[in-house]
Amino acid sequence: YITSANAVTESGALVNVDGNANRVSCIAFGPKKVIFVVGANKIVKDVAEGFKRVKTIAAPKNAKRLNTATPCKELGHCICVDGDITDGCKSAQRICSQYVVTAFQRDKNRIKVIITPEALGY
């Protein structure tokens, strides 16, 4: 399975948020191999900064790309940037529904992360 991450922490945790869990479910379980290709623009200090990155960069841009009826599409940021991830957006088209932080993979060869020096995605 080839994917990317919403953020990668300096300590190596992978931060991912999905609307339907189609991507995060494969990251957590299923495919025998998971390869992440991540731009250096997605490196953050910690998990909290990773979620903030999702709420201020990735989610609004994806909401515009998908033309969802969500506050982040209109505002350019989530209405719960610094708050509880369960607060705020009540849209039926919410794209921040499933939160997965991969802090460790017990199958040592299952996940590989390739970090490119250029900015890739959002």
Quick synopsis:
By secondary structure, this protein is an alpha/beta fold. Helices cover 26% and strands 24% of the residues.
Describe this structure in words.
By secondary structure, the chain is α/β, with parallel strands linked by helices. 26% of the residues lie in helices and 24% in strands. The protein has 3 helices and 7 strands; from the N terminus they run E-E-E-H-E-E-H-H-E-E. The strands form 2 sheets. Strands 5-2-3-6 form a 4-stranded mixed sheet, with helices on both faces. The longest helix has 20 residues, at 47-66. The radius of gyration is 14 Å and the shape is globular. The protein starts with a strand and ends in a 6-residue tail after the last strand.
Primary descriptors:
alpha/beta; three-stranded parallel β-sheet; 122 residues; 7 strands
Find the count of extended strands (DSSP E, 2+ residues). 7
Q: H/E order of the elements? A: EEEHEEHHEE
Helix content: 25-40%
**In terms of per-residue confidence, which ranges show pLDDT below 50 for 5 or more consecutive residues?**
none
Number of helices: 3
How would you sum up the global shape?
globular
SSE arrangement:
Layout: E1 2-3, E2 7-9, E3 14-18, H1 22-28, E4 34-39, E5 43-44, H2 47-66, H3 71-75, E6 98-102, E7 111-116
Parallel strand pairs: 1-4, 2-5, 4-7
Antiparallel strand pairs: 2-3, 3-6
